[in-house]
Amino acid sequence: MNISAVAHRARRAYMTYLIMCVIIFTLVSLSSYLMIQLHEYETMASVQAGQLSVADAQISALECQVKELNQALDAARFESSISRGAERKTEVTAYTWTGNKTASGTWPKAGRTVAGPRNVPFGTVVWIEGVGERIIEDRMNERYPNRYDVYMDTEQECLEFGIRELIVK
Predict the structure, then answer these.
(1) In this structure, is residue 98 part of a structural domain?
(2) Low-confidence ranges of the chain (pLDDT < 70)
(3) Strand partners for 91
(4) Rounded distance between C-alpha atoms, residue 2 and residue 151, angstroms
């Protein structure tokens, strides 16, 4: 092989080496740039996640306040209707021993205890047609917003009582 062919091959190898160096440098630079961008996006995402959790906490607090205000409004409406001596027919059912205290923390007692709507405060005395006076000591499930549930000693009494439309005041 002559010297010019060797020189030509050497130049070609050198050029290939330089091109590879440029490509490697470009890839390393691009990789560094992308890592910096990724870090910035992760930081922004972390900040936004923190802001979202604060907003979620504020929303939860506001939802609780709205619920409390609605309960207070319902109680005030009920008290207003009681003070006017309002009567209304409503659904009345019966329940018996569950082994638990009432929602107000008392033990249920026949002739005294009635579960009432959530908008009626504990301790409120209601008169139920054909049943008499009872004290709201327990709560109805939210799906029964206008029902009263009279406590009775036995399951048989509850079955005989059934579901009735009675005047409650």
Answers:
(1) yes
(2) 1, 77-86
(3) 165
(4) 115
Three-state secondary structure call for residue 89 = strand
82, with CB counted inside 10 A (0-12, 13-18, 19+), is middle
Q: Does residue 53 lie within any of the structural domains?
A: no
Is residue 111 assigned to a domain? yes
Residue 1's pLDDT is 64
Select from 155, 145, 125, 152 the least CA-distant residue to 137: 125
Number of domains in the chain: 1
- pLDDT of 118 reads 87
| 121 falls within a domain | yes
Distance in angstroms (rounded) separating the CA atoms of residues 98 and 134? 19
Three-state secondary structure call for residue 75: helix
CATH number at residue 114: 2.40.40.10
pLDDT for the residue 106: 94
